[in-house]
From TrEMBL:
Gene3D superfamilies (UniProt xref): 3.60.21.10
SMART domains xref list: PP2Ac
Name this protein carries in UniProt: Serine/threonine-protein phosphatase
Boundaries of every Serine/threonine specific protein phosphatases domain copy: 65-70
Top EC category: hydrolase
Single GO molecular function: protein serine/threonine phosphatase activity
Positions with biased composition (Basic and acidic residues): 1-12
This protein's UniProt keywords: Hydrolase
Organism from which the protein derives: Caenorhabditis brenneri (Nematode worm)
Length: 262
């Protein structure tokens, strides 16, 4: 069902209007973003405001999921708090936290593909559990919310185990297989980790990690990718090569600490 069609995109190309498209899928398109819109760069405010504005303009076509950086303990430490307080005020920062604390955690594509920022949760057995969450709510260190925003796949285990990140859990291929069977899924799509080629499959292609920031933090020479699902539920990847000739005086954000928080 999944076809590996890669398209390399010129990073200098003009971005077309929403839905005008230059790829093989013509007509209106829906866009799903998997979280982490702030931190590790000097223009977090512009990025998240643009995304919020796009969602307001096209609410049925732009969906924004919550990542682990849409949480006060993380974005206060990794740059967003400093940017808000330096450029505007702490009050602006608090307004953003209210928005982050109401964001959705998962999205289902045609009842067959589940998307989230982090990973699956052993505690999630019915999607009604997500509807029952009382928002606004911050991200705890354990539980369903933590797993959906923090969890990672791990080839060394089968089911679930505490995460070395200190939040969420790690999970193995057998856990993915059981989760997909329980929810009748063909694929799980998540982000959260830098992958060198822009995307990386796991658990016999039942799960894929996609990462859409090339040349991450100015020190990781990684490709970025975007996943396209067409009307026939065929998956393809658009790749963006890193631009590594960044001048020394350009601010590309704080250095990553080898994926401690992504």
């Amino acid at each position: 069902m999944y076809r590996h069609q890669m398209k390399e995109k010129d990073p200098k190309a003009t971005i077309p209007a929403l839905g005008s498209g230059t790829d093989r899928q013509k007509g209106p398109k829906n866009y799903l973003f998997l979280g982490d819109y702030v931190d590790r760069g000097p223009f977090s405010i512009e990025v998240v405001l643009m995304l919020f504005a796009m969602h307001l303009r096209w609410p049925d076509r732009i969906t924004l999921l919550r990542g682990n950086h849409e949480s006060r303990p993380v974005n206060r430490q990794y740059g967003f708090y400093g940017e808000c307080s330096r450029r505007y005020s702490e009050k602006i920062y608090e307004v953003f936290q209210l928005a982050f604390n109401t964001m959705p955690l998962t999205a289902i594509v045609n009842k067959r593909i589940m998307c989230m920022h982090g990973g699956i949760s052993e505690e999630l057995y019915d999607l009604k559990q997500l509807d029952a969450l009382k928002r606004p709510i911050d991200t705890p260190d354990i539980g369903i919310i933590a797993d959906l925003t923090w969890a990672d796949p791990d080839m060394e285990i089968e089911l679930y185990k505490e995460s070395p990140r200190g939040a969420g859990r790690i999970f193995g291929a057998k856990a993915v297989e059981e989760f997909c069977k329980h929810f009748q899924l063909d694929l799980i799509v998540r982000a959260h980790q830098v992958v060198q080629d822009g995307y990386e499959f796991f658990a016999d292609k039942r799960l894929v990690t996609i990462f859409s920031a090339p040349f991450y933090c100015g020190q990781t020479n990684n490709v970025a990718s975007m996943l396209n699902i067409d009307a026939d539920m065929v998956a393809s990847f658009m790749l963006v090569k890193p631009v590594t000739d960044i001048k020394g005086d350009m601010n590309v954000g704080e250095k990553a600490e080898e994926e401690n928080v992504n």
